[in-house]
Amino acid sequence: MGNLEKYIGPTTIDAINAQYEASNKQRSRLGLSACGHKCNRYLWYTHNGYNKKKHEGRLLRLFQLGNILEDQTILDLKMAGFKHHSCQKQVLFSHGDVELLGHIDGIVEGLIEAPKTPHLFEHKTASKKKYNELLKLGSYRKWNEGYYWQVQFYVLGLKLKRAAVFVYCKDDSRLYMERVKPDREATIRKLEDIFEAITADIEPQRACPNKSWYEAKWCDFYEVCWP
Description:
By secondary structure, the protein is of the alpha+beta class. It has helices spanning 12-23, 40-47, 57-79, 128-137, 140-143, 145-158, 184-198, 214-218, 222-225, and strands at residues 83-85, 90-95, 98-103, 107-109, 119-126, 162-169, 175-180. The chain has a single domain, classed as Lambda Exonuclease, Chain A.
C-alpha cells in the first residue's frame, strides 16, 4: 500500500507543531551559552547573523520539555531545603564593541557536598543512552565539551568558586550532579580565541573534515557551510 499521508488533512498534532514553528524566533547574534561550540566557523556564522535551518515543531517541543524539567529540578531542590536564586542573571563579556551575553540557570546554595559555597546552577536533560554515557565517562567535560565551557564562562563572569551541573534523564528521572571547578586561565584564553574567530574578515576553518561527516549533517549551518 502506498503512503496515504498526503491524502490526509491536517491533524491536531500538526496544529500544535505549527504553532511552535510559527512562534519560534531565531537569535540574531551569538549568545554566550553557545560559545562552547567546537567549530569556530559555526560561531562566526552565528555572530554575523546567518540564518540557521528551521527546526520542526516536534524538536521545539523537545526543547520546551527541557525547560519544564529544569523547573522541576529547581522545585525539587527547594523542597529538599536548598536555596536557588538569580535565575536568568546576566553575564557579559566584551571586547571592543563586540559583546557576548548570556543568562544563567541560577545559583544554588546549601549543597550537602559544600554547604557554605554558592554554586552556579546549570541544568541539562539527556536521553537514557546519553545519560548512561555520562555515567560511564564520569566527567561532564568528557561528556560534552561545549557544555563544560558554557559553565566555565558563567563561573568566570560571576567570580564563583564552583558550579553544580545537573543532568536529568528524560526516560527514568535519574538525576546526575557534578561539581565543576573553575579554570580561570584556560577560560580567558578560550574567550580570546572566540573573539578573534568571530571578528575575522572571512570564515574560519571548519571543524568537520567533509560534508558527509555526521556532525556536519546535523549542523544548523550545513547548507551555507557546504553549498
